[in-house]
Design a protein that fits this description.
The protein is an alpha/beta fold and 478 residues long. The protein has helices at residues 9-17, 23-41, 49-65, 107-114, 157-165, 181-187, 220-230, 275-290, 304-317, 319-327, 336-351, 354-372, 417-420, 451-464; strands spanning 44-47, 76-80, 118-123, 135-136, 140-141, 170-174, 190-193, 213-217, 261-264, 294-297, 377-381, 398-399, 405-406, 426-433, 439-446.
């Protein structure tokens, strides 16, 4: 029987409606689990259980009346710290800004609350969400519940760790180069990078076409549930798209794979993929093929060097200068990885004009479109490397498969191409276990704005490679 703190959101809602479970009971179980294990993984910047309890009681009363049953009513939701809550601190992980407060709810928080979700905790990030590990001078090191030696990834690492450890059924995330999909991959959870504009962001960086906010959960259905609540036009984000996101997942299990045409791409060019990551990715393809999908292996001509140059040229004209403006009064307090990020972005902008970056982006987008022609979706690993050290800074690069040394550790991740092609929806789902004892994941990449197909494929992968019942062997830590 599933422990209450690991109950998925979809099942919890059904039990709320039938009055077999109260939102108060679920919140109490999550609170007890947090007290027992969060000290060992450090997934939260703060907990809000005192505020959450009255909301849970109010939700229980609504279920008792059978009225005002909103889509997330009574569900605990962990919020990434960068998704501000009006009146509460909003530091972006920066020591110098630890007392700043949000003037309003972030758009995704506003929508979660309107849908009845209860923000019960806030999750850790690296400084300014600019790293794929999650540690900072302000909050310390966040660890992977599957193996605390390793990171849950970043920048939404606190969200991934909280989900994997049973500290929340739903969580918010964001993604500008893999910050949702990498934590999902490293923690055995599900993360969705929506196409640009699908989910509203916060100005002015909502105008950055690489970025996006989105949902994480432990199942595909729960991720679709939260995505549907988050999506739609918002007056504060003029890039946001009109209309609801209606995701109807197949209830036929593995049969959903029948007839799908899947492109399987192991290396996206020359990414040095670890043997265990490759084996798990191929196992996903084989399972889909056995369930009736047509799976064909393809190649792309990308290089890690080209992708890295393209993304850092982009960062050199947007995120890098924004970070420099935000930290100009306290550069000495920044983590080394933050200083490295800004320096790399500045160097790329010095060496490449903005139009050079746009030309590279449109070429990469065209190459992806050509490779996916005739397929419903593309599947590839989320990360070429199986794990990152929890406290690693990787200032001198990273050693990849076969002893190859990559100049920048981000070159070990395979997510950034789909921020360059950011009209493509991407769903990250578990693919298996790495030899080091943490999960691996694949990305399901769809055609531009074809959200429904990636969730259909995700549901099929979940059916043919069942994962949700697996739990980290997490002992109570102090």
């Amino acid at each position: 029987m599933t422990e209450l703190h690991y109950l998925d959101a979809t099942t919890a809602l059904r039990l709320f409606r039938s009055r077999e479970l109260s939102p108060v009971e679920l919140l109490a179980a999550v609170a007890a689990r947090t007290e027992a294990v969060n000290g060992g993984i450090n997934a939260f910047t703060e907990t809000l259980f005192d505020e959450a309890l009255p909301a849970a009681r109010q939700a229980a009363a609504s279920y008792a009346r059978g009225r005002d049953l909103t889509p997330l009513l009574g569900l605990p939701v962990a919020a990434k710290e960068k998704h501000g809550l009006k009146g509460r601190t909003l530091s972006q992980g920066l020591v110098a800004r630890k007392w700043e407060r949000a003037k309003e709810d972030h758009p995704v928080i506003e929508r979660i609350r309107r849908a009845g979700g209860i923000i019960h905790a806030r999750t850790t990030t690296p400084e300014y969400s600019c790293a794929t590990v999650t540690h900072s001078p302000l909050w310390g090191v966040t660890r992977n519940p599957w193996n605390p030696q390793f990171s849950p990834g970043g920048s939404s690492g606190g969200s991934g760790a909280a989900l994997a450890a049973g500290l929340a059924p739903l969580a918010t995330a964001s993604d500008i180069a893999g910050s949702t999909r990498l934590p999902a991959s490293f923690t055995g959870t599900v993360g969705y990078k929506a196409p640009y504009g699908r989910i509203p962001g916060l100005a002015p960086l909502s105008a950055d076409h690489y970025r996006g906010d989105g949902p994480m959960a432990r199942t595909v259905a729960d991720t679709a549930l939260l995505a549907g609540v988050m999506a739609g036009r918002h007056p504060g984000d003029h890039t946001s798209l009109d209309g609801p996101l209606a995701l109807s997942l197949p209830d036929t299990g593995a049969a959903a794979a029948a007839g799908l045409r899947i492109a399987l791409c192991i290396r996206l060019g020359n990414y040095p993929v670890a043997a265990d990551v490759e084996a798990n990715t191929r196992a996903v393809g084989a399972a889909l093929r056995s369930a009736g999908a047509v799976v064909e292996e393809i190649e792309l001509a990308w290089t890690t060097e080209d992708i890295s140059r393209t993304i850092f040229t982009h960062f050199g004209y947007l995120l890098g200068p924004a970070m420099e403006d935000e930290t100009a009064d306290s550069p000495e307090s920044l983590a080394a990885y933050t200083r490295r990020f800004m320096a790399d972005a500045r160097k790329a902008a010095d060496e490449n004009r903005f139009i050079d970056g746009i030309r590279a982006e449109t070429r990469i987008q065209a190459e992806l479109a050509a490779a996916m022609a005739g397929f419903d979706a593309l599947i590839c690993p989320a990360s070429a490397v199986a794990a990152l050290d929890a406290d690693g800074t990787y200032l001198d690069g990273i050693e990849a498969a076969g002893g190859e040394r990559l100049d920048h550790y981000w070159q070990g991740h395979m997510t950034a191409p789909f921020n360059i092609a950011n009209r493509c929806p991407v769903l990250a789902v578990p693919s298996g276990m790495a030899d080091c004892g943490i999960p691996t994941g694949v990305q399901i990449v769809g055609h531009p704005f074809d959200d429904a197909t990636v969730f259909t494929v995700g549901a099929a992968v979940e059916a043919v490679r069942p994962w949700a019942a697996r739990r980290p062997d997490l002992l109570v830590m102090s």
